[in-house]
Design brief:
By secondary structure, the protein is an alpha+beta fold. The chain is about 35% helix and about 20% strand. The chain has eleven helices and 21 strands. The structure holds the ligand Nc1nc2c(c(=O)[nH]1)N[C@H]1C(S)=C(S)[C@@H](COP(=O)(O)O)O[C@H]1N2 and molybdenum atom.
Length: about 550
């Protein structure tokens, strides 16, 4: 190809456009492997199209194409992007970056699609942004080689004309062979070749990573949880555990609403086939468990409320689920911890660690090595296939997800991920209470208003919840039935609201008689303290 010929140069422009678009997609897909498979620009846009398509259209395409509808959608999308790539290549000029603007517009579409996915976090914008940035750079470089700026620092080639200083706009349409350099063929081919290499490498990485996640997802879909004998079932949940009022927080948190906290940029894609747990350190016998040797045991169902130490006063980093698991104490007993040991250092497949007091794992509470959450295998983000759940301790010292290693050790010999970063060593859960309804800043009418919320003090239980209006007296809230001392307890109180702006505060008392302190403290190092309050405007009568 001789790109100094106008015809060949147009072909090269088209190639530059398609290659740049390809870079955006391939790099975006690869980076998505580090963030979350669904954050890939291509998949996010496809998923958004599926979600936003009117039901009739969706049905019609599924009818017409059968199960091929998803590949068909992806192919059409690829076709549209290829056409866009052609346009991008033809429109771009060194001094008139219309193609670059089009890539940025595509990038914004992809970013928007990614961050509006139901499970998206802010990091979901990253793949598309990185891909878009690289695509613009690639396009600018390639088009720069096709339309070298006069006197520019493009490295120059033989036949470079003298600088004229005139604007480049003219060269976009007219040729002025005498006064400006021609296309740099060699430079363009090197750049195009590099673009192909980047696409190939990023594409291969992206596919490999998403495939591994897909393997774990597919396995999870077909996985059967160990059967729980009726003698090991969780105590039934009485109706009375929630106040009889609309809009109160559910007693059991559905998996897709359960808070998620971890350091994993990419959710580990561990399969049961690959899972092992090695128990070692200060033990009489080292043990290695695999999925079958774990799940052939007698499993239990237990309801336990998990809480994050980072939860601000009134925050929602707490959730309650039925966990299917095997008692950690029994596994430890098999290994035989030495009498001097006082800590279990657990490590996840991605290298995160937690140090849990052995005492808390062996004192009879329902500390579980869990494989199920609300009757399903653990969702990938919640630790599939195996995690820990320990009542009464914040997650950062106890709830290791994707757990693969247990070292029995001592607090004076080992430390863990968050304790190395200034957080408390033991992590017992502090008493907390929260107003859940009415919603923040709700507009209320005067008269009776049902105020309701949750409170927790795992391992101790909640004995009392009180509500205060402005600086008035504390009013005794009605406690819903207690399920157990390891689960949160719902409460409600009917407020006779008077017109004006009012602030409600809540405080709980645990079963030891200790009243929640008013002193405000930030979450670090041992958990937030202080009363939760909410302000409401009650309309004038
Ligand atoms: N592997 C791993 N496990 C982890 C964490 C982590 O960062 N990595 N975070 C912990 C913290 S701080 C909390 S609060 C709980 C949260 O569990 P969830 O995401 O299932 O709600 O997981 C714990 N287990
Ligand atoms: Mo946490």
């Amino acid at each position: 190809m001789d790109i100094t010929q106008p015809r060949a140069r147009v072909t090269a422009q088209i190639a530059a456009g398609i290659l740049s678009t390809g870079i955006a997609l391939a790099v975006g897909h690869a980076v998505a492997g580090l963030v979350a498979p669904g954050s890939s620009p291509f998949l996010a846009v496809a998923d958004s199209v599926v979600d936003r398509a009117p039901a009739a259209v969706r049905e019609a395409t599924i009818d017409a194409l059968g199960t091929a509808d998803k590949p068909a959608l992806l192919l059409s999308l690829a076709g549209i992007l290829a056409v866009m790539g052609v346009v991008i290549g033809l429109m771009e000029r060194p001094r008139r970056p219309i193609g670059s603007l089009l890539i940025i517009a595509l990038g914004l579409t992809g970013t928007l699609a990614a961050v509006t996915r139901p499970t998206a976090g802010p990091a979901w914008a990253l793949p598309t942004l990185v891909g878009t940035l690289l695509a613009v750079v690639a396009l600018r470089l390639m088009v720069g080689a096709l339309f070298p700026a006069s006197g520019g620092g493009t490295g120059g080639g033989p036949g470079d004309g003298p600088a004229t200083g005139s604007g480049d706009l003219a060269s976009a349409t007219d040729e002025a062979p005498a006064s400006r350099p021609g296309p740099d063929r060699r430079r363009f081919l090197v750049l195009a070749g590099s673009a192909v290499a980047v696409i190939a490498a990023a594409g291969a990485t992206g596919v490999a990573v998403t495939r591994r996640a897909a393997d774990a997802l597919a396995e999870r879909t077909g996985l059967r949880l160990p059967r729980v004998l009726s003698r090991n079932a969780a105590a039934p949940v009485p109706d009375g555990v929630v106040p009889d009022a609309p809009g109160v927080t559910q007693f059991l948190t559905p998996n897709d609403e359960f808070y998620r906290i971890d350091t994993a940029l990419r959710v580990p894609a561990l399969t049961t086939a690959d899972w092992r747990l090695r128990i070692h350190g200060m033990v009489e016998r080292e043990i290695e468990l695999d999925w079958d040797s774990l799940t052939s045991r007698e499993f239990l169902d237990r309801i336990v409320t998990l809480t994050c130490v980072s939860n601000e006063v009134g925050g929602d980093l707490a959730g309650n689920a039925t966990w299917t698991g095997f008692p950690i104490a029994e596994l430890l007993a098999e290994a035989g911890p030495l009498p001097e040991a006082d800590m279990l250092l657990s490590t996840s497949v991605d290298g995160w660690t937690a140090g849990t007091p052995l005492e808390a794992l062996t004192d009879g509470r329902d500390a579980l090595l869990a494989v199920g959450m609300n009757g399903e295998p653990l969702p990938l983000e919640h630790g599939y296939p195996v995690r820990q759940v320990v009542p009464g301790l914040y997650g950062y010292v106890s709830a290791t997800k994707w757990v693969v290693d247990w070292e029995v050790t001592r607090f004076d010999r080992a430390s863990a991920y968050w304790t190395d970063r200034g957080w408390g060593e033991r992590g017992p859960i502090l008493t907390a209470s929260r107003i859940d309804r009415p919603a923040p800043l709700a507009q209320l009418d005067p008269g009776p208003v049902v105020v309701a919320g949750t409170a927790w003090a795992q391992r101790r239980g909640i004995d009392r919840v009180e509500v205060q209006v402005d600086d008035g007296p504390w009013n005794e809230a009605t406690l819903a039935e207690e399920y157990s001392i390891d689960t949160w307890r719902m409460w409600s109180w009917t407020w006779d609201a008077e017109p004006g702006l009012h602030t409600l505060s809540v405080r709980a008392t645990d079963s030891t008689g200790e009243v929640q302190t008013q002193t405000r403290q930030p979450p670090i190092p041992t958990g937030a303290t202080g009363w939760h309050n909410r302000t409401f405007r009650v309309s004038g009568s």
